[in-house]
């Protein structure tokens, strides 16, 4: 791989695959500053190994009874290999880059959802080093 060149991968689209959101009416209406989040990344390559589907999910509030809601969200990104300008294979790309690209979409969706749900201080996920998180926890898997 030539580190001076782009990877030769197109980001085709991102879709909201799953959203389960439940407000706990008896709980406090304010969202805590420190929120426990469980992230998971699942990668799937098609048979020709030229299309990558990355599911990036987060579960919030499931284990924390003080959270005023429970949220389980999955966004899916679709990435295609540029056969004319390939510089990185999709398997390598899936081990970090795909989730890094999807995180801002996940972050924005959660902020918007909690704002529209009526919380006076919507949940804004902090900036995170997703690549480092993936290396430390090994949350990415590629299914072939």
Descriptive report:
InterPro entries: SecB (IPR003708), SecB-like_sf (IPR035958). Belongs to the SecB family. The chain is α+β, with helices and mostly antiparallel strands and 144 residues long. The protein has a single domain, classed as Bacterial Protein-export protein SecB (Roll). Helices cover 23% and strands 35% of the residues. Strands 1-4-3-2-5 form a 5-stranded mixed beta sheet. A hairpin with a 5-residue loop joins strand 2 and strand 3. The radius of gyration is 17 Å and the shape is elongated. The two termini are 21 Å apart.
Trace the largest sheet across and list its strands.
1-4-3-2-5
Order of helices and strands: EEEEHHHE
Q: Strand percentage, roughly?
A: 35-45%
Instruction: Catalogue the unreliable spans.
Output: none
CATH topology: Bacterial Protein-export protein SecB
Based on the coordinates given, report the CATH architecture. Roll
- Class by SSE composition: alpha+beta
Tell me the count of domains.
1
Number of strands: 5
Percent range for helical residues? 10-25%
Q: Could you name the CATH homologous superfamily? A: SecB-like
Summarize the structure.
With 144 residues, the protein is α+β, with helices and mostly antiparallel strands. It has helices at residues 90-94, 97-116, 130-137; strands at 9-23, 37-45, 51-60, 69-81, 140-143.
Distinctive features:
144 residues; alpha+beta; Bacterial Protein-export protein SecB; five-stranded mixed sheet
């Amino acid at each position: 791989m030539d580190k001076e060149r782009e990877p030769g991968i197109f980001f085709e689209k991102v879709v909201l695959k799953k959203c389960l959101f439940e407000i706990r009416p008896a709980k406090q209406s304010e969202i805590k500053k420190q929120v426990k989040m469980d992230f998971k990344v699942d990668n799937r390559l098609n048979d020709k190994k030229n299309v990558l589907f990355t599911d990036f999910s987060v579960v919030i509030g499931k284990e924390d009874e003080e959270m005023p809601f429970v949220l389980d969200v999955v966004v899916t990104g679709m990435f295609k290999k540029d056969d004319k300008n390939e510089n990185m294979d999709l398997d390598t790309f899936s081990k970090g880059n795909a989730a890094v690209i999807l995180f801002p979409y996940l972050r924005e969706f959660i902020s918007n959802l909690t704002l529209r749900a009526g919380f006076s201080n919507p949940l804004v996920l902090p900036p995170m080093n997703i690549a480092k998180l993936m290396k430390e926890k090994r949350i990415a898997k590629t299914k072939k």
